[in-house]
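Lay summary. Proteins are chains of building blocks that fold into shapes, and those shapes determine what they do. In this project we predict the shape from the chain. Here is one chain we studied, written as its sequence of building blocks.
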Amino acid sequence: MPSKLDPHIAAIEAWLAEQPQLTALAIVGRLREKYPEEFGKRQHSIVQRLLRALRRRAAERLVAQGPLDDAAVPAPFSGVVDGSGYVRPGPPTAPLVEQAGKAIWRDRLIDIGSSSAMAPSR
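And here is the predicted shape, written in a compact code that computers can read:
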């Protein structure tokens, strides 16, 4: 079934070649400026579908071209890299209940040494 956009696909593709980030709303706006009797906000969804299909085809063409040249591929790091970037000591591994008990005991030890032994200091 022919689409209302079929006669305008070449123009839309040219707009996308110049500005790949164009949205469906922007394209509908441009079409409405040129053809106010044919296009309005109601055509937004068909332009979205067309845009999705055009971008999918462009992505498939890029993937089919294969990998980029060697200059575009970053060189791997030498040596072992775990990727975490964490340099401080590892997190405690004791069960949470045991960790909580240690924290309470540590607070009480601090309180005993302070002037007010009744309330935990924070």
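What the prediction tells us: Residues 6-65 form one domain.
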